[in-house]
Structure formats: structure tokens, C-alpha cells
Amino acid sequence: MRRRVIYKFxxxxxxxxxxxxxxxxxxxxDQNVQRVTLTEKPRERTEDERLGPTELDxxxxxxxxxxxxxxxxxxxxxxxxITLIKSAVLLTKSYIVIHIFAEGELHSSLQNQLNSWPHxxxxxxxxxxxxxxxxxxxxxxxxxxxPCASQRLFIPxxxxxxxxxxxxxxxxxxxxxxxxxxxxxxxxxxYQVIAMAPDNEVRxxxxxxxxxxxxxxxELGVNSGxxxxxxxxxxxxxxxxxxxxxxxxxxSKMTYGDQDLMNIYFHFHPDELYIYPCEWNYRxxxxxxxxxxxxANRDGAHVxxxxxxxxxxxxxxxxxxxxxxxxxxxxxxxxxxxxxPMLLRNLEAVAKTPCGKVGxxxxxxxxxxxxxxxx
Length: 375
Ligand SMILES: *[C@@H]1O[C@H](CO)[C@@H](O)[C@H](O)[C@H]1NC(C)=O
Ligand SMILES: *[C@@H]1O[C@H](CO)[C@@H](O)[C@H](O)[C@H]1NC(C)=O
Fold this sequence. Notes:
Number of helices: 16
Distance between the termini: 81 Å
Largest sheet: 8 strands, mixed
CATH superfamily of the largest domain: Spore Coat Polysaccharide Biosynthesis Protein SpsA, Chain A
Strand content: 5-15%
Radius of gyration: 25 Å
CATH topology of the largest domain: Spore Coat Polysaccharide Biosynthesis Protein SpsA, Chain A
Number of strands: 10
Strand order of the largest sheet: 1-4-3-2-5-8-7-9
Bound molecules: 2-acetamido-2-deoxy-beta-D-glucopyranose
């Protein structure tokens, strides 16, 4: 009798161990399968899935160590944002996590275009598509703001599992790797939460000092097209409540919506703002009269911002020249062989226009980067 009990006991113990081993092996293979599919497909996760990395430690680590880039896409800005993303991934070595807030009807076209890129490009980034949205109570925010224009103000409350990110308008192109702009984070002091560039360099053509009827940052205001945000710090600050308060107080006096709001915020919290110079947000204003951005004159622009539709229209054709070169590049040949010559040709063709006269500003950083790559 006693023997039988012991025998039964051992039998169950052994079965349990065997089952456990089977379970472990199974888990391992699942993980492998997951990892393989991750690297073979362009990585898209919809907003219904959890807004975060996979449960794998590797995923979490990758998430933490990646560069996070965010854009807000509405109306006819779909194609522009694809070219923007292309410029980001072509020059950057680090893994990029891209957070795209877009109107629902644009989702499938964005997906189709990104998913059509070759594997050697898509393996270096993943993207997450969200509908434009608001933090809770969302009805209240919606009544206060227009959907797309103000989305960037709420990113800290929506992407709560992201520490820091680079937000850019869709009319932006990168002429140097994202690691470069990202490295400004390490220069923030302990109070600084956001980095932006001045809205202008010279008093007599600037906007805020001449026309603004509300408080703004510094002498000439700041531009909200290229923003580094430490979301962790913003979430710990009074950002959201202050923004609402300032909106109520100044909305009748504002012209540029959320950019004005950010100017008002940093007027009252100047110690929270890190200013990077104009070559990190280079606009037509910097070259349409005389070339006023010193850093760009010297070494070229890092980030182009073709506001007032200059990536598409004929107003400052140097911007469109760069845009077209990125748009046409088809991932086939090396950048040095096909992209760079095309960029230089496009710029040469507009060398007589005001911004085209300083064409080196639009090509120097790229040429420098590709030359280093060759070595
Ligand atoms: C976007 O690009 C596609 C293909 O390149 C083109 O058919 C479409 O008209 C473009 N859309 C806009 C809004 O420019
Ligand atoms: C953002 O701020 C938090 C809190 O101070 C800090 O731990 C984190 O390293 C910062 N992120 C970056 C990218 O500098």
C-alpha cells in the first residue's frame, strides 16, 4: 500500500517536470518565431494593440535605446510625411520608433507606402499608427482645440510609455542622421524639458516682436516645427494645465495656434526651454532676403523645414529641390551614387534663386555624411 503511494507520487512528480520542460521549450520556440517575424515584416502595430514594446526584454531594451520620432499627418500631407520618414531612415544608423498620429482615412495609404520599402530599410525602424486623439476627458479637449493643429501638445499624455521624442512637422527633411539632433538631449540641464529653435534671427523681418499681441519667448519667439521633448519631464511638470489656462486667457489674441501657446508657456517658464540654433530648423525665412543663419552658412543645415508649403510649391525652389531628390530616390543604388548627384543637380538648377544662391546649406551635411560613410 505505502509503496503504491510513493510510486504514484513519483510518477506525478516526473510528469510535472516533463510538462514543465515541454512548456519551456515551447516558449523558447515561440519567442524565436516572434523575433523572426519581427525582423522580416515592416513593423507596424495598430493602436488596438498595446502601445508598447513586446514583452521580451530585448524589445523593452530596444524601445528604451531607440530614437523616437513623432509626426501628425492630416489632410493632403500624406506624401510629404512619407518623404520625411525616408529622409530620417536613410541617414540614421540607430533603430527608430516612429509614432504617427493620422486621420483614419490616411492610414491605409501610409501603411502601403511604408510597407513597400525594401527589407534593408524597413529592418531599421518600426512604426505605430494612431488616430488623432486627445487625453481624457477627450470631449473637453476636442471642444477647446482643432484636431490636428494641437495634437503635438498632448503627445506627453498619450505616449505614456515613451521617455523622450523628436516631434517634427510633416514639411521637414533631415540632412544629417537623427543621432545628431538627438544628442542635444544630453546637453539639457536638469530644468530643461523641450528644445526648439528661434522663430527668426533678425528683428526687422521677425513676426513675434512686430505683430504678436500675446506674450512670447525671448526676443523673437520660438518655432514649433522641430521639437525635442523629454516626455518624462513634461509629464512631471504643469505643462497640460498651464496650456489649458493660457489657451483660455489668450485664444482671441493668437494667430499660429499651438506655436503661440508654446511661446506663451515658455515666456512664463523660460528656464524649461533649451534653444538650439537655426541650423536645426532651417526655413525659407533664413535665406529669402539674405542668408541669416550663421551655423548653416558655415556648415550647412541639419534639418530643413519648408514651411508655407515650400517643399511643394515654387516659392523657394531650393527646398523643393531637396524634397524632389528624396522623393525620387528609389532605394536601389547607394546614396552616394544616385541620391547625392541628383540632389546637387537639382540645387544647381535653382542656383539663381535667393535660397539657391546658398545651395551648400542644402547639401553640405549630406555630402559630408556620405563621404565619411565611404571611408
Ligand atoms: C501622393 O503620391 C501618389 C503616388 O506618388 C499620387 O498618386 C497622389 O496623387 C499623391 N497625393 C497627393 C495628395 O499629392
Ligand atoms: C528625460 O528626463 C528623465 C528625468 O529627468 C531622465 O531620466 C531621462 O534620461 C531624460 N531622457 C533623455 C533622453 O535625456
